[in-house]
Predict the 3D structure of the following.
Amino acid sequence: MKLKRVRVKRHTLVFRALHWLIVAEGVTLGLTGLQLGGIWGVRVLPGGTARAVHVIVGLAWFFTALLFTQYFLAEDYKWYSISRIPYSITYMIAEAKAWFGIGPHLEEPIRYDPKKRKYIEKIVPTEAMVWWIFLILGLIIAFTGLALAFPKSFTLVYEIAGGLAAVLGGGPYSMVRAIHRVAAAAILGVVILHAYAAVVFKMLRAITLGYRDEPVAE
């Protein structure tokens, strides 16, 4: 049975602007990071410009992410709270079963009450888990990046890395650099899944134009 839908403003202009600014900064950091690491022969900027751009954009990304997180939590934390993670995991398992054809098809869980003008459920549950993964990886890549750019100001990061190096081998610097790269790769993987989910659940209009036709709660 086809659900009745109503057009709702899902994201404000500020939210959308910050989201796409972070995306643009992330792409720039990814490309310059590949060049700095000599990975796959990527070269987007001449000479030593790549490092300067990487550091400057990295600092911009850090403060943009802080602003976005503050705004995001003030607006939508109830949907992404830690208490919803078990529900998120349960939904992810059910979603995986449906994907592999060993479970029932999952209906879109988002519901909007036009009379009360509020959401009954605003997100696909797995988004809550993805948010916390982004937060953890973001903190890791931010502080390892700051330590690589400003080693004298972030000696604590090297002390922690030195403890890991004592177990895994290598030195503090190489460990910080390795963690930074692994976090970057993990973020790329989560971003790809996030983009895929945005297409599957038809969220691209909402994050670009702000509006989405939401299923009406019965």
The longest helix spans residues 49-80. The radius of gyration is 20 Å. The first strand starts at residue 5 and ends at 9.
